[in-house]
Each structure stands twice: as structure tokens, then as C-alpha cells.
Amino acid sequence: MDNVHQFEVIVVGAGGAGLMAGLYASKIAKTAVISKLYPTRSHTGAAQGGISAALGNYEEDNPDWHVYDTVKGSDYLGDQDAIEFMCHEAIQAVYELEHMGLPFDRTPEGRIAQRPFGGHTNNKTGKAVRRACHAADRTGHMILQTLYQQCLKNKVNFYDEFQVLDILIEDGKTVGVVGVELATGELHTFHAKSVIIATGGHGRVWEITSNAYAYTGDGAAIVSRHGIPLEDMEFFQFHPTGIYKMGILITEGVRGEGGVLLNNEGTRFMETYAPTVKDLASRDVVSRAMYLEMRAGRGIDGNRYCYLDVTPATVNKYAEIDGRTNPDGSPYVVTGEQILSKIPDIVDFSRTYLGVDPITQPMPVQPTAHYAMGGIPTNKSGEVVIDDKNTVFPGLFAAGEAACVSVHGANRLGTNSLLDIVVFGKHAGIRAAEFAQGADYVALPADPTDFSRQQVDRLKNGSGKENAFDIGKEMKAVMFDEVGVYRTEEGIQKAVEKLTELQERFKGVKVQDTGKIFNTELLNTWELGNLLDMAEITAAAALNRKESRGGHARDDYPERDDKNWLKHSLAWKKDGKIKLGYKPVVLTKFKPKKRVY
Amino acid sequence: MNVTLKILRYNPEKDEKGHYETYSVEAEPTDRLLDLLEEIKGHQDGTLTFRRSCAHGVCGSDAMRINGSNKLACQVLIKNVGAKITIEPLLGLKVVKDLIVDMEPFFDNYKKVLPHLINESALPADGKERIQSQKERARFDDTTKCIMCAACTTSCPSFWGNDDFLGPAALVSAHRFVFDSRDEGASERLEVLSETFGVARCHTAFNCTSACPRDIKITQAIGELKMAMVTGKLD
């Protein structure tokens, strides 16, 4: 066979989780990282506001507070053992990034600078705490750069611009992956003992999204085709502040620096919905509040957006009302220059895409599809677990947004995604390498690229009467309208039917480009197939869960229902049908109680 | 509004050489150029080939020549470039297909400047962060912004003339570490830069600075590297 490579560990995806996994696995075992993008193009680079760790560099903080905040933020669906693990590892993880060279902003004492973020609180006072460690508003960019640099230094093997199409499984064991080299169109087989899926999320399912084009759920779709379930897929986070119509992310750090949300009456409406932390409530809470304001006709000019105002006059006005102080106790007062230095990229985005200067004008924002809480089920070591008893699938691992540990439960707190990728990327890398060291290679199947070829051939040989671009648009529209911030039985049912129709029409798609070299049309069309699968599973799980919890808000079941629904969902896709099951939530210290901010 | 895009096409599996093709698209003035490329690919010509990912100027995938200047297609709004737009691949790197160029030489140059923190000293005994003042941190802030889109390097006449020249982007990465107070690898790195194809090849054309979608003051950064090599000081 041509194009066969052998590595003990294969990492698929080169964002923060994949690079961290690759870095740690390669210290122990022969490892390669495969990515459809050059690693520095990965979506981790779009993360802005910070990575949380209870360093307490400005004020008292405690990792146990971080644990509680994360549990509460998850609306009690997060597994508390995993959350404890992550929040306690956070401190060393952030110091490790600094030691690797990450250029964090600094406090006047030269320590890592921290800012307030939604849902992160002092558990004694209930007020926002400075826990998000940041490098301006490009913290993700710095993490991605730093980890890539460390991988280069440590001579990690990379296969850049290789799209993985399939995972190889023989007798219930992981055997490797198959990928296409984009530059040549050649299929390559990677024979491995351990495979780590770190392919990120699938926000491109929705019309308005902060996510990159590359965020098409590839890893989750690939393993789902081999009978692996996906966990909690009904929980997808809508970030409150995306640029109107475009969805581009405006970090919560803007509100951390004192920005507030205003309706068409100029009212700071979050006071009504979250009296204690106001604009720094959890993202699900803020997104719902914006929808309720807009439904009540209080969107700006009656449109479906609100204002995010970070002009110094507004910031200082509300800081005074809130009694906000600097770490030294003096009143919190900002100038335009200080705002610019704290959120330079946001100022750039707003000027470029909106023609609005946020130092002098408010920015029009709307909730934007942002983050998959659900994904491939794993334990704390990144091992994929495939049922309600957490049975480990040998040799298969997942980390980052593609995975569901679950530390985010029904709603992720801002800054916990960067923490997740660093902590669980590392542990998946270590565990995958250890597993590989104690295992033998399982023989490759006789024709390893068979299923990959079938998938690609189907897209080349369809009838051609359907247009892939239009199918994608229709999927995004119905998912944004019916499986978005607020959901109803009727609406989700409509989405389910539409998706069934689109899956059928997708069979009639035929790509025009028949070449081998950089056939990006073929790649995009294959990705659309993954998005359709993600959308279908999301809608089915959303229809099934008859309660409101975190990112899943049902108008027809407005309350959380712990008696019937304090459980994770698992979804298997088989023969075009979706089967649903459940698994228990791990509760340790914190009993579910009503969630008030 | 109706927009006409003239795009330089080349498919190595079919074409002897490049040729222009023209497309007409209905657009809003606030659309990104990338939105129009997607529309063409989705509805008119699936074979049109380009890279893209984040679509808001932070991943560096979609640098191309737009009306003769290097820009990111996702950062250009139609109202700012008008209704007639010419799009060509970056210069100085081999065209692989349409707007996709071979990025390998570019990343190879990046790797040459030792782009990672070099510090063999003991870490703080308490396991916490190294101390760095706000002033020290600010010293290299500008060059931390680089997204390696290659817009600068492929606008540089010295790079066109000789692709062994490290190019502005690699020098920006060198600057980011040389002026980081935590880094101890300056002399090692400056040695790389002093070789034949290092900073001496920069003739301060300033093309790089105007091409940078992150507004990094690249020519100034290269000047600071030159000064450090002459004086041996890292001010």
C-alpha cells in the first residue's frame, strides 16, 4: 500500500487542545499531528478575553470558588469531579503557559494580569472577581502561537493541510485514521495505536455564528459514523455579543472592562435579569435577556439587536452606580485610551466591520452561535467513553471543544474553553501516549481507505440537481430560527423535518471540481455532510429534552426539571435514525439549587 | 449593487499558464470580499479555489492581492474597494492553484529564527510566573500580533528578488522574542539574522508595513533589530 505512515499516537486537529496533546504525547511516544489548516490558522486563535485560573493576583480568589462558579454556570449538568480537576489544575496550567513564553499582560507588580468575566465570582460577596488571565483581547491567539512554537521547538511531527476523512476501527479497537493531502488529493493511511480527536466545534450549523468556516464538526461526525455516541448535543452556547448580522465575536471582556448592554430606551436591562452581577451574568442568561428585550419591542429601532456600550462616559457612569473600585480601592474610572489598550482588536473589528468607533459610539450586537458544550464523551483523561457506564473505547481519545468531559454541562463560563483545551489536551496527550506504550499495533484492514473513497465518490457522482451552497444556507436558517436561543416543540419539529429533507437532497449534490489538487469544493461539500449530521443530532436531542437548562431554553418547558432531566443525553446515529439514551451526572459537593446571578 | 470581479485563475491540472476570468455578483456595500468569493464558489463556479477560515482577520488564511495590494479578503468591505475588483494570488510564492500559493518556504523561514522563548534559567522557586514589568511587556507588544498571513513578506521587493531572504514576517517573529525581557536567546537569534539573507536584505521599502492587516510597524521592528545588531543593546 502507498502512503501508509505509522505513529503510536495520532492527533487530529492543531488548535490548542491538539497542540497540547501533541506536545505531551510526543514526550513519551512517536506522535504526529494532522490538521486541515496550518496550525496557526486554528480557531483557538479567535478566542479573545482570557483563560481563567484563581491566581488571586489582584484580590482574594480560590480554586474552589472557580469550581462552584463552573458548576453553577453549567446549570448543574457539569460533572463535578471533572470540574474540580480542571479548576485546580488551572493554576499550574496558566503558570506553565507563562513559562513557555506566553506574553500575558501584567499587573503593576509584574504578575499575570486578570480581569472580571461572566459568572466568575467571589463566593463570599457574590460580586465579580478578576480571574481571567489575559493578553489584551487576543489571549487565544497568544496560546495558539505559544503552543505551536513549543511544538516546533520539540520537533513534533506535523501533517499540515491534511483533511482526516475517517477513523479506522477493527474489532472494537482504534487502528488509525485516513486523510487526504489537500495539495495532491492523495489518500494517506495513518496506522496508530492511539488517536486523539481535537477537531473543535460545529458552530457553522447556525446562520449567525462567531465560528470559523473550518468549524464543521468533522471529528464528532467521523466517530459518530462508527457507532460512537455524542453527549449533550442539545446544549450549544449563544454568545450574547456578536456583531449584528455578521456574528463576529465581541469579547465578554468588554463588559469585564465596564461595558454595558442597553436597549432602545437606553436602559441597562441586565439589572432586571441579574441584579447582583448584571452584565457579567452567564452567557445563557444574558442571551435570553436580550431576546426577551427584543421580543418586547425594545431592540434598537425595533430590530433584533441591542447596544453594547463601552464609551468612557457610559462605563464611568455605571461603575459609579455599581460602586466599582480598582484593586487599590480607588473609584474605577476609565479613559478612551485605556479602553483602547484593553480591547484593541475589538476596536479594530468594530471600526472595520461596523464603521462604528466603540470609544465614542455603542456597538450593535446580537447573540451569536459560539460554542458546543456537547461532543464526544470522555473521562478526565480524555479517553472516549461510549455508554452510560462510561466504558472506555480502547485507543480512542478526544479533547477540547470536540469533546464533552463534561466540564461545561449546559452552559460554559467564558474563559473556561481555553482552560479546557490546555488541561484536557495535556491529559489526553499523556494518557494516549501511555496507552500506546502498553499496546501493540492492531493490523490495518485490508482496504483501509475504502470508506473514505466511498464518501468522496458519492460527492463526485451525485445527480447534480441539488446545490450544496443552498442546502447549507437552508440548514443554517432553520437552525438559527428554530434551534437557537429559545426553542419550542413545534419549532424544533419543523427543524427536524427540514433537516430530513435536506439530508435527502444532499444525496443529489455533485461537485463541479473533478481535480485532485486543492479540491476545496470537495472538501467543503464533505464538511457540509458533517454539519447536517451535527444539526440533525442537535435538533433530535433538543426535541427530546423537555425542560430548560443552561443553553437549552424551551418556551414550552420554561423550568429546569431536576427530577426528570438531571442527566446527560447520549445520541447515536445509525442508518439515518437517531437513538437517544442517558447517563448520570456526577455530583460531589454541590446539590442543584436555583440559579440566580 | 453589482460588482465585477476579475480573478487570476490557474489550475495546474488543466492550464499551461494563468488567465483572468470575470464574475458578476450582486452585493451589499458592507459585504466582505470573502463573502463574494464564497457566493461565486457556491453558485457560479465551484472550481474557484482559495483558503479561508476565521473570516474576520485573525487566522491569516485569505491573504491575496486585491486591486494590486496585499490584503485579507475577509477584512475588505466592498464599499472600500469599489465595484470593479481585480484579485490575484500573492507574489513571490509559487502559485499552486488559483489564489492558493505554496506557503512552505514562508513557514520554513519562520522556523529559522528560533521562534520560541529561549530561557534556560531556573524558574521561580514558588512555581509561579516570571516577573515582567508592564513596560517590559509593552516593549514587544506590537510584534506579538502577527498572524503569519504572509501579506508583508510577499509585498517585499527583496523577497521577490531572492526567496532565501527571511522576509519581514520571520523578522517580526524574531523581534517578538529578541525584545522579550524573559528571553535569553537574542545573540543566537541575531546571529541567524546577520547571515547573508537576514536583516541586511531589508532595504526599507516600507511595503510590508502598509501591507500588514494587523497594523504592525514592521519596518520599524526590523530597524530595531538592525540597531540591536550594531550596538549589541536591546533597548
User: What is the fold-level CATH name, i.e. the topology of the largest domain in chain B?
Assistant: Fumarate Reductase Iron-sulfur Protein, Chain B, domain 2
CATH superfamily of the largest domain in chain A: FAD/NAD(P)-binding domain
Query: How many extended strands of chain A?
Result: 22
Question: Can you summarize the main beta sheet of chain B?
Answer: 5 strands, mixed
- The first-to-last residue Cα distance of chain B is 52 Å
Mean pLDDT over the residues of chain A: 97
The mean pLDDT of chain B is: 95
Q: Which word captures the global form of chain B?
A: elongated
Q: Can you characterise this structure?
A:
The complex is a heterodimer of chains A (597) and B (235). The longest helix of chain A has 25 residues. In chain A, helix 15 packs antiparallel against helix 16. Chain A has 17 helices and 22 strands. Chain A folds into four domains: 208 residues, FAD/NAD(P)-binding domain (3-Layer(bba) Sandwich), CATH 3.50.50; 87 residues, no CATH class; 123 residues, Succinate dehydrogenase/fumarate reductase flavoprotein, catalytic domain (Flavocytochrome C3, Chain A, domain 1, Alpha-Beta Complex), CATH 3.90.700; 111 residues, Fumarate reductase/succinate dehydrogenase flavoprotein-like, C-terminal domain (Methane Monooxygenase Hydroxylase, Chain G, domain 1), CATH 1.20.58.100. In chain A, strand 8 and strand 9 form a beta hairpin. Chain A is of the alpha/beta class and 597 residues long. The model of chain A has no long low-confidence stretch (mean pLDDT 97). The N and C termini of chain A lie far apart (60 Å). In chain A, strands 1, 2, 6, 7, 8, 9, 16 and 17 form an eight-stranded mixed sheet that branches. Chain B has 235 residues and is an alpha+beta fold. Chain B folds into two domains: 100 residues, Ubiquitin-like (UB roll) (Roll), CATH 3.10.20.30; 128 residues, Orthogonal Bundle (Fumarate Reductase Iron-sulfur Protein, Chain B, domain 2), CATH 1.10.1060. Chain B has nine helices and seven strands, in the order E-E-H-E-E-H-E-E-E-H-H-H-H-H-H-H. In chain B, the strands form two sheets. A five-stranded mixed sheet of chain B has the order 2-1-5-3-4, covered by helices on one side. In chain B, strand 3 and strand 4 form a beta hairpin. Chain B is elongated and about 60 Å long. At the A-B interface, helix 3, helix 4, helix 11, helix 14 and helix 16 of A face helix 1 and helix 4 of B.
